[in-house]
Target: Glutamate dehydrogenase
Amino acid sequence: MADVNPFESFQEQVDDAAAYLDVDKGMLDRLKNPERILETNLAVEMDDGSIEVFRAYRSQFNGDRGPYKGGIRYHPNVSREEVKALSGWMAYKTATVDIPLGGGKGGIIIDPSDYSESELERVTRAFAKELTPLIGEDRDVPAPDVNTGQREMNWIKDTYETIERTTEPGVITGKDLASGGSEGRVEATGRSTVIAAREAFEYLGEDIADATVAIQGYGNAGWITAKLVEQMGATVVAVSDSSGGIYSEDGFDAVAAKDHKRETGSVVGFHGADEEITNEELLQLDVDLLVPAALENAIDAEIAEGVQADVISEAANGPITPDGDDVLEQKDVLIVPDILANAGGVTVSYFEWVQNRQRFYWDEETVNERLEDIIVEQFDTLVDAYEEHDLPNMRIAAYVVAIERVLTAAEQSGTWP
Ligand code: NAD
Model:
């Protein structure tokens, strides 16, 4: 994985798009930097009675279009710069899909596999206590990200509600159904990734049902992408996780590969696939659709040189470095950018927040239909911007559309005092 500062990549992406917009220099500076960042050190008692300190962050990037919105990541590589970048991507993601929310992100520097469930609960509740003054359904609404899920969201909601002496399920999204979660949330990120990919093939005059697919990362985003793209008739030929990848020229059963990962911890060793491959080999396979669904900076310029896919749908946030982007643009690869492709997660989080506030819940079909409408409509908006302004690629088109939306709201708010 390339050693690129993700915040610098993010700022470069905003600059690239701003070149096509009439933006005041000072305002551009505002659009490239977070409004505020919480940095906190959580002192937590371990099972053996010792105390361990965990550094944690929450970046509130932009709230001009609504409450800050974005996930909480648990990973040893979490850093202030990474959280800032991820919060910026969230601000432009909520704007790309035009939902009334801003952008934020949080993270704890921790490898959760090293800790017991009760230790993780205490770490999570300690973070929730620090977050409580900053979050709320009208302030900042966190959600899951890498290595966090319904369990952590339920803990955060309970800690917040206990301290605030209230019932406020909309303070966080990605909760379990019984705690106020939404139907369709677990599958939402993979679902938007495949809807966006399907639209991209259609734009090229092709049918996704004929596509071969490689997916890097087999967690929530990657595995659901595999399942849904198979349901559309496409052939999944390769998948991977942090331990390595598997490949079969004629495809394999993606659901069975997931079962194998659930049982053993990795897709590696799955008997339904012909061979084992590295993550680098997976990214450079001769496939029609490539889905990076692991972490940022997976595809740098060197790897991009070897990419053979026609379409990339970015399930992960920031999986391609700016240098990698340049190479892929020259190779005419159609990239559906993360801020649209993986926006299903935040879109259904928005639906969850709406349902929590109304105390009125929708069925899964309604959630999926509304998600599909938004992704298809905004894909078309990006294509219109791309063609109308003769933009170099779809990522710049997405940022042009999103920055304009944030800028309009920021200008209407004005500066204060
Ligand atoms: P996850 O923790 O469920 O899965 C991550 C997967 O990536 C795991 O299979 C892991 O083994 C694999 N991985 C980690 N490092 C790798 C490496 N170096 N090479 C190959 N595989 C590697 O996380 P997730 O929720 O699926 O998130 C994946 C990406 O999708 C992240 O970039 C995240 O920000 C993005 N995303 C997730 C959601 C969501 O709702 N889950 C929403 C939007 C964006």
Notes: The domain at 187-340 is CATH 3.40.50.720 (Rossmann fold). The longest strand covers residues 51-62.
